Each structure stands twice: as C-alpha cells, then as structure tokens.
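In full, the data:

***
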Amino acid sequence: MKKLQITLLVVMVAAAGIYAFREPLMNVVMERVTADMFVAQDTDAYDPGVAVGDPMPALRARFDGREVTQLGEMTGAKGTVLFVNRSVDW
C-alpha cells in the first residue's frame, strides 16, 4: 500500500510540475519540432512565374462557347471570382 501511495505522489508532483511549466515546455517542444522545417533563403533556380501582386498575364479561355481574352468579358452582375494556381506541374 505504501508503494502505491509513493507512486501516486510522484505522479501527482510530476503532473503539477508539467502543468506549472506548460508554456516553457510547449515552447521547447515546438522549437524542436520546427527546427529544420523552414528554409532560411531560397537559392534554387525554380521560377514559379508571376509574383504575388504583379499584374496577371494575358488571358485566353473559353466562356459561354466563345474565346475570351479580357477578364471583363467574363464579369457578371455580381463580379468575377478567378482562381489562379501557379504551382501545378502538368
């Protein structure tokens, strides 16, 4: 019985310590998990195309059975939602 009480006491003290220091412990864990997750500088020759904020290049699409070259030709009464994905490898 005394062995069980000592074990429970040790578990409770450990749990209280973890709870008391949960923020610093979580920070240490997150630093270790994400240590090599990010690249400090992009040095490869890959060119993804249009940069964020640059004007969109010329458009050529089919809309309502006709060829469209201006975004305004597809704009309806409520506007237009255009999704452009620049990272698909065809």
In short: The mean pLDDT is 84. The first helix runs from residue 2 to 20. Helices lie at 2-20, 22-33.
